[in-house]
């Protein structure tokens, strides 16, 4: 079945080019060598009518209208691989791809499945359309009770920004509970926002919905003001990226760490607690917005290495050259659309790499990944023995929690 | 051509519904309202007609949580006139709603009235046919697609079993929309925000609702678990004997 798109507007908005070059380092687009590195490294470049390099070519040839008319930019998962390897340091993902998606969205040229996620975000503050009142339901039954700041109003050291998938996704909730147990075992005084938390909005922003992202950021910013805390930790690298790199420009500035960074700082305290052996070959998957975009490569690996019995192996794509799970930049909400075009999923490629590396456990640090990789395992040959575990789950298990 | 789209809001089923202590209505404390999905399609269909030809689209609803946001979003999609009926609508059923919309529509004199074919809280019939009756206009329901030529509209009406009938009606008319020709479009939030600064919502106060003709709810309750089934154990003859005994006991044999 063809995925239907709304009608395409024939003209680009007047401000498109000006605003593109005005973005941070946007001017660098003019320095493109047309070397093709970006299109080559793009995991879906081979399927796009206009892969990144050709998009810049079209920009120069003043036929960018055609890029907007084609729908290939919706194959972009904002994994930042193109930008990381561009010899001219062009912010391809942050400027060109995102701005092009914004333009598509303004023209109403948007796949319906993505539309649903954006409408849900607007209405419920999360892309899955779950009741915001149930955002803290994952805490039910946990002892000691998780401190929901709106209820207790107690000042805390750490505000844990749990995020959408870690809060609501049934596969992720157990990993989220594992992290709560680890934090408790370390004696961290932490709290969550519960029903008051809204989506970080970063994937919506990278899917072209800048206005919606700002709305989410402002809502979260207002809530942050109500409570006393010293720093924020996040489960989700996308939330980490938003809070670290995007919220400050909107006047929302707080020290923020991904939970793997936060735990790495306490590695000496954690080591003696890791009593249970987990005897397994473990491959670590670098999430795009933790590794490639924000340079956190070593901390998650150090946590895994500290667990007795774990033998860390590397997959062919790793660190800066990691392969996206396919969920970023709106990919989480474009599964049908992207399948239609590619007949494969990036998560399936990744699972194959884990199998080739003869890993028994695929360790991850991003809540998009366990559901994606576990689905992929079901369809990949010889992958049925592979387990997907959040780093927090492995730590909790090793601590006997 | 003037197209009017009266819409209504319904309880959002994402939130759990609870019954009011009175036992005959929903508890509104935690109730969140959402646009009736079919009405959303009616708005989309009106915008599509406007884009295909010429015309003016007026969208109207009653005062409720989310009404302004919805009207502004409709304007961002292309609606020309936004009308909000204000007043106390707490006792409004569809009969009352149809009457207040009919009063407004008599004044607006649209050529075509599109409304959602149904809503999940239509306890006393759907708004479209009530409206058509009050206005003395023809009504076609379950419409998924339409063509307007001159003073006539050809509506594609869906029947079960995958059948579609093309029904020609003289304008003005009321159509109950089952589905718009394209799914309701997405409007970027920045566009809605822009419209909020420029578009105007006309407020029309309404008083004295007339809900007569509607149903009265005597009791509202969650589905109740009942244990009415009795399992008969034993061999075929034994079970048959027991069954005969039960029928005799009930006086049916």
Keywords:
heterodimer; A: 401 residues; alpha/beta; Fumarate Reductase Iron-sulfur Protein, Chain B, domain 2; Rossmann fold; 3 domains; four-stranded parallel beta sheet; 8 strands; 43% helix; 8% strand; globular; disordered N terminus; B: 253 residues; nine-stranded mixed beta sheet; two-stranded antiparallel sheet; 11 strands; 30% helix; elongated
What secondary-structure arrangement, pairings included, does this model have?
The complex is a heterodimer of chains A (401) and B (253).
Chain A: H1 16-22, H2 37-41, H3 52-60, H4 64-69, H5 81-85, H6 92-106, H7 112-124, H8 149-152, E1 158-161, H9 164-168, H10 170-185, E2 190-192, H11 202-206, H12 210-226, E3 231-234, H13 237-246, E4 256-258, H14 259-264, H15 267-270, E5 280-284, H16 298-306, E6 310-313, H17 335-342, H18 346-356, E7 361-364, H19 369-379, E8 387-390, H20 391-398
Parallel strand pairs in A: 1-2, 1-3, 3-4, 5-6, 5-7, 7-8
Helix pairs in contact in A: 1-6, 10-20, 18-19
Chain B: E1 2-6, E2 9-11, E3 33-35, H1 37-52, E4 56-62, H2 67-77, E5 81-86, H3 94-108, E6 112-116, H4 127-135, E7 139-149, E8 152-158, E9 164-170, E10 173-177, H5 189-198, E11 201-205, H6 236-249
Parallel strand pairs in B: 1-4, 1-6, 4-5, 5-11, 6-10, 7-10
Antiparallel strand pairs in B: 2-3, 7-8, 8-9
Helix pairs in contact in B: 2-5, 3-4
